[in-house]
Fold this protein.
Amino acid sequence: MKVALFATCLVDTLTPQVARATATLLQRLGHEVVVPPGQSCCGQMHVNTGYRREAVPIVANHVRAFAGALSSGVEAIVAPSGSCVASIHHQQAAVARRAGEHQLADDAAALAERTFELSQFLVDVLGVTDVGAYYPHRVTYHPTCHSLRLLRVGDRPLQLLRAVRGLDLVELPGADQCCGFGGTFAVKNADTSTAMLTDKMTDVLSTHAEVCTAGDASCLLHIGGGLSRLRSGTRTVHLAEILASTEEAVTPQQSTTPAVTA
Amino acid sequence: MTAVFLGIPTAPPGVGHLRGDRSFPDAAREALRDGQLRANLGHATSTIRAKRAAVVGELPDWAELREAGRAIKAATMARLDEHLIALEEQVTARGGTVHWARDAIEANAIVTRLVQATGADEVVKVKSMATQEIGLNEALEAAGITAHETDLAELIVQLGDDKPSHILVPAIHKNRAEIREIFLRTMPGADPDLTDDPRQLAMAARTHLRERFLRARVAISGANFAVAETGTLAVVESEGNGRMCLTLPDTLITVMGIEKVVPSWRDLEVYLQLLPRSSTGERMNPYTSLWAGVTPGDGPQEFHLVLLDNGRTAVLADEVGREALHCIRCSACLNVCPVYERTGGHAYGSVYPGPIGAILSPQLTGVEDNASLPYASSLCGACYDVCPVAIDIPSILVHLRAEHVEAQTRTTPEAVAFRALSKAMSSPRLWRLAQRAAGLGRFLARGKTTLPNALPPPVSTWTRTRDLPTPPAKTFTQQWAEEHRS
């Protein structure tokens, strides 16, 4: 299958290894990956902060970037982010329609139908749970809010993780609790956000996992930023990076050395 | 579009309890440091959460019930005027008197006048959010009338000269040791040997209240539901104090928000299943009192119903936000909210805290009077999942954020930044430039894997408690383009 990768603005700019891992994984599974060069952002941060009018041209850019891919034989768009895919599904068409851009809304809705979060794409579209990965580490999984409640990914990421060789999966207490990221919430309500993060880190650290994983790089940036500040030995690794790892091709970021060396 | 609605008044300032004196982040900062508060709230909310989940899980048709609850409310709001007039006709036909109050000032004046007409200088009250909202107790006090709250938690709050912090459990922020201290200090004739045993505390409150029930001539209540076709009012409660207030005094005055009306008796079937399981985690509500008008020789001989608007019509005018009026005040959203669980209710500054408060208070007052509340959420969506009438709270929060942004007449630095970012993100060429600029941040790290802790605002609000990774030299799309250049 020909698959277009939507890296998302945050992954592309701050954690490119997550997009790289997604591409590597899909190629290893026998699919052709294209990365439309005009892509930037889904518009979620603007919408969720109250700038829904300013989000419309961002949505238009996204539609321009990916509509071309569909006409050149791409069957699916995949993003390593639950919240960006949720925004594409639940917000893009609505903000366009509110702004009177009905053609854009229709186009965005059509693209949304072909857009998948990584774990949903693997399990539901490709029908695969064992992707042939090898990751010999103790790992706990945080089911980010938008993956859990907007996309309803359910236990798909856990099915994928259970099939990874060498991986010691340990259950995260209070897993369904928000980590406190919430986009601009993390800066507009930094104190409350930090209080939520502290409780999330308490649960993560109680598992004695080397790695906390999730399907959203944004939430991991938050949890990982907190764990790193505490100089804890646990670090955050995106689900795509774990699934991309094999005995033969260890991803460059696979080491579980803490992000900050003391 | 909003210009069309400018004529509909919101809740007036200077009366009632819908506005805080500080922004949410400021109030929250202080609350977060209160370890006792955090412990009390964490314990209480996790207990109620588990109870709710267990009893909701028992019902195989919960999803259908929830959809019925949503649909009945949506249909009712679409013809609210007709249902209210039908309610007035039925209540009047059964010997009650209906009063229409545009806002808190009018409602307080009506109730004060009605109490004064009886000659009473005290009233007993059933716990009611509407009367909290309008500041009725303060208005009565100003007229020389003492209001006695009879709900146990509301009594604790009143005796402690405190404010409610939860819709259903107003004293959720207090533990039993604190309650014992309040009772010993404020309850006339409290047993000096009183312990913090829950039964002892309840018995002390019972003795204190019993005296007031038996001598009261006037009671004031709110209403959970009002049935238009029969003129029936409904109050659901767990302690029996409501039943006492609704049956013993000669005069009963009920203050009810206009959104509480349901068209038919049968609609109660749905809500009386949804409400107890969502609120207290019980299968059935302990005391459900229903009455229509007056019954000669039985119960209050004078009944007044005050229908309160206080901004509700303005909420109804907002196509997205009006769903907030569907709320049946179960408080399930408060109990699952990670923000509420940590800050408590006082930080919201309104009698309606938590997720529902964050969408209801700003709409009742006008969003600019509660501008920080729509942002008091990480949009985790737990509230929407548990709402028994499926109010899409996260979407309304996002909508109100936009209403706030679009109401600004002066350009804020934030707006400048977001507009610039929008420009960049709408143009692949500008976006690459912006990403390259962000990549330059790596030089601040001087070879370390994270950026320095002390960065200028607004980045500092992040880096005060969280590290930021050093941006890479090349973005993924840039790397990919270089590798796949044909």
